Amino acid sequence: MSSYKPFAGTQQGLVLAIDIGTTYSGCSFSVLDPGVIPEIRGVTRFPAQAPGGSSKIPSVLYYDSAGKVRAIGAETLLESNIEKAEDEQWAKVEWFKLHLRPKTLSTAALHINQQILSLPRDKSLIEVFADFLKYLYSCCQTFIGETLLPDGKSFWESVEDRIVLSHPNGWEGPQQDSMRQAAVLAGLVTEKEDRIHFVTEGEASLHFCIDNGLKAKDEGTIIVDAGGGTIDLSAYSISNSGTNSFEEISRSECCFAGSIFVTEQSRTYFTDKLQETSFQEDIPRIAQCFDQTTKLHFRDSNEVSYVKFGRLGDHEPALDIRSGRIKIPGTTVASFFQPCVNEILKAIDKQRSDASKPVTAVFLVGGFAASPWILLKLTEHFEPLGLSIKRPDTHVNKAVSDGGVSFYLNHFVGSRVSRYSYGVQCSVDYDVLDLEHRQRGYCINPIDGRRQVENCFSLILQKGVGVKEAQEFRHSFYCVSHSRLQSISTEILEYHGINEKPSYVDVDCGIYFSISEVTPLLIVADISKLSRMLVPIRGTTGLPYFRLEYDVVLLFGRTELKAQIAWQETVCSISDPISV
């Protein structure tokens, strides 16, 4: 474990990390005792699990026709619940996490859209998240109450907890806001409480790797969190600020190439092979058995694989079925993996090429990382190129939840790379010497009479820039009005195109920023007090107007984007303002 320091607080506390995965979910926690070095522990007991069960449960829920939760997690695997679900027509919800994916990732994920099951009628995504969060939270409460001595129940009731929620690298403000709403709906926190913290799965995995053998080096390391739905990649190196302080050296990536897509490839194969046969109704069962057994152990394309799904009497040699087992050539199983392998290799190559420092190692974590075939394919591809492929010698499927607790305790990452360009749509003063201004033309502001160019994009932070935690990015703007304004608002937009310095919002609209593609961040400031201090100005039209100069400030150093509007109440003078 990394060199944790004794907890410096004066009161007992609790940190709880909840990792809701596409296929499986888990929780970890740490009790904070003043002067004591914190220990990260996992929740290892859930309802309906056999003794000594897994530290994770399926991310699955059953709802009845009235929208009431009837089974969650390991409970959905009980034969009695499966039978009731069929008899009473319960709605099964799985892979619900993928419904929350950013719209900007939809194009890259069109091939999964039809595979994601729809939500129950009259049940919103936030409500489903809330139901699952509430269940996991109660499991944590029960586990801590039963395992902490001398009295875990009274401990839980006496301390205030901090909750860390993890999410894929490609998720940002809108997804975090939805998860926060779900936490409020679930009763974990109130709207006014600031006890929810977010961490990307890539950064949580880095903290897990540091705690399990990753050494601080000058060279770069790529962390690959291979999960059920997404593959999250992040590249880091040791920073100049000290031991165990890391900086991001490339934009984090998120691709849809998790283990569920291997299972879906197998389902297509079984459907093509068995449709219109006596085993057609067994296809879902065969795919499920492949997912839970054969897929996990596959390691050699030269050997035949088997899926045991039925009874000894299930026998059809023409379909390669004998004694309730279906035989699959090893090369065919390898083909199920190949699309995911290709995506992972491509993503790692991109991280290497974009990194600001040479990359010498790849750390593989997450449930999909336990696959011998994935490890073999990455090793075959990258070791000849000088990259070492490593997998921590512990439960890699606990990386995100354990790493979430470590993230709260340590904050090993001091600098992150901006994934996109951020700015504001605005109008700028017309410059006759600017060729593009002359080509676009200008309009006259009816309030102050200035000549202005519309549909401009004021860049505040460029993509690919390293950002320290306390670093601010700001730009100056102004607004004019005939009346005294009571508030001002500004939308922060993302640019997803290839232009390094985008300038106009009506260029490349489809990949620029669009309400249908990116949810803008709207910030609003109450300026009623300041407005009374402004001195009216006589405009060219002869009518008086008021001019307010202000800054838009962005903070990107943490895993949550923060935006502010700032102004000076005594001296309203900011250089080169722009009319918004």
UniProtKB/TrEMBL annotation:
<dbReference type="InterPro" id="IPR043129">
    <property type="entry name" value="ATPase_NBD"/>
</dbReference>
<protein>
    <recommendedName>
        <fullName>Actin-like ATPase domain-containing protein</fullName>
    </recommendedName>
</protein>
